Amino acid sequence: MDTNNNRVIVIGGGASGLFISNILLEKGFSVLLIEKKHQAGLKLRITGKGRCNLTNTCLREEYLKHISSPRFFEFAFDTFDNKALCSFFKNRGLGLVEERGGRVFPESGKSLDVFLNLLNPLEENPKAEIIKNCQAEHIIVRNKTAIGVSTSEGDFYARHIVLATGGMTYPSTGATGDGYYMAEELGHTVVRPLPVLVGLRTKDGYPGELQDFLVKNCEVSVINKSGLIKAKLFGDIYLDKYGVSGPVILTLSRVIAEDLDRGETLFLKIDFKPRLSEEKLLAEIRSVFAQRRTEEVSSVLRKWFAKQMLKDVLVKCGLNPKMMAKNLKEEDFKSILWYLKQRKQRIIGDMGWKEAIITKGGISLDEVDSRTMKSKKIKNLSFCGEVLDLDADTGGYNLQIAFSTAFLAAAGL
Ligand SMILES: Cc1cc2nc3c(=O)[nH]c(=O)nc-3n(C[C@H](O)[C@H](O)[C@H](O)COP(=O)(O)OP(=O)(O)OC[C@H]3O[C@@H](n4cnc5c(N)ncnc54)[C@H](O)[C@@H]3O)c2cc1C
Questions:
Q1: pLDDT of residue 209
Q2: Which of 286, 329, 344, 360 could bond to 196 as cystine, CB 3.0-4.6 Å?
Q3: Cα–Cα distance measured from residue 156 to residue 137, given in angstroms and rounded to the nearest whole number
Q4: pTM for the full predicted model
Q5: From ligand 1's centre to the CA of 175, what distance in Å?
């Protein structure tokens, strides 16, 4: 190892920690990467369902709309944007493909290849050392200057420290919020972390047979007690016994996280037939039941519902499955309409840290220089990745945050 004069310690071997370590080596620094788990990059390896949605090709202005604090992030993005990220990996031999919605994945379809692309150069370079199974506990500071890290394996010293410990989601990957405590000890403020991009639990979920049941093309709204629509999105959802998940719900969970955390009463309204107005759908229900008078209710309901949903529809609408269509009354038609378009389910929480994709909250951006990622409180200390109070929608934006902030933090040294 080099002398401490040229050494940078990176705490956390996730997406941002691995990435900044590579950039620091390119800049001629030596790197000591401290990783708590038996292996680095555990979360990176499960990203994008094992395929790693690296970034998104959308234009800058659109990109920034998906980020929680665009004004803080824009300098990092302008320094190392989505194009630069794609070039970085292509130049290192990793083929990329663009899919629906501008999502970029490795051509191989394996997040492992992204991980190895970042890990191998570190393992092969004598100026880099990775210590695994080593938990950083405190950042050692003298005269408001970071000089080292105290860990479960002893103390290490360096000219600069980078805190890249991630957030709190999927704690089995090592992200358990340690960085927040280390930063707080040094006087940094941590904005209350919340799990987001996560399924929502509703008061009465769906029956067992609807586990992860996909319903396409719904319109989902979040409504408050006064009936005000807080957010509305169109897309696919999954129903299960706790509530709902899927792309649309994940995005909504991010929008309403703070309201839910404050205890606001919120309801989810799923419109299963958004292309038909209530009037038209009610007319259609009346007409279909009139035409199929001699069939059982459950058979007629198949016109609007998948077989797996029938039990829930019948129970919630108070209908007897064996009843003849001709015996249904106007109030029964209205119940079916209610289920299809109007039903409000109270949101009672989210699926928590174990299932959330990302953490909202983290080290306050007011105390971090957006042009260098350096701490405004402690010299020789920088931050990158999810440990910061920065988060984004699904679609590759969160890994771009990790890589852009890491690149900028390295550029500032
Ligand atoms: C299931 C899932 C799928 C995802 N898919 C995508 C996707 O396809 N596209 C996308 O853009 N984003 C995705 N994300 C989000 C993305 O993974 C994160 O934004 C990104 O990993 C954050 O990088 P990071 O380096 O800040 O933190 P992490 O990757 O979480 O890394 C933090 C590292 O720090 C280590 N660490 C923590 N505390 C200590 C300590 N005290 N001492 C030493 N080491 C420590 C941890 O062990 C970990 O290795 C996904 C997230 C999840 C959970």
A1: 79
A2: 360
A3: 11
A4: 0.94
A5: 7
- Per DSSP, the three-state class of 399 is helix
- What's the CA gap between 244 and 246, in Å, rounded? 7
Index of the ligand 1 atom closest to the CA of residue 13: 49
The CATH architecture one would assign to domain 4-195+358-411 is 3-Layer(bba) Sandwich (3.50)
* pLDDT of the residue at 210: 83
48 CB near ligand 1 (under 6 Å): yes
Backbone angles phi, psi at 224, to 5 degrees: -90, -175
CB 104 within 8 Å of CB 96:
yes
For ligand 1, is residue 165 a contact (CB within 6 Å)? yes
Whether 12 lines ligand 1, by a CB cut-off of 6 Å, is yes
Q: Which two tokens stand for residue 318?
A: 């108070």
Q: Which atom of ligand 1 is nearest to the CA of 173?
A: 47
By the 8 A CB rule, do 407 and 20 touch?
yes
Mean pLDDT score of the chain: 96
Residue ranges of the chain with per-residue pLDDT less than 70: 1-3
3-state secondary structure of 294: coil
Q: Where are the alpha helices (DSSP H) in 247-338?
A: 247-261, 278-291, 297-301, 310-317, 330-337
pLDDT at 1: 44
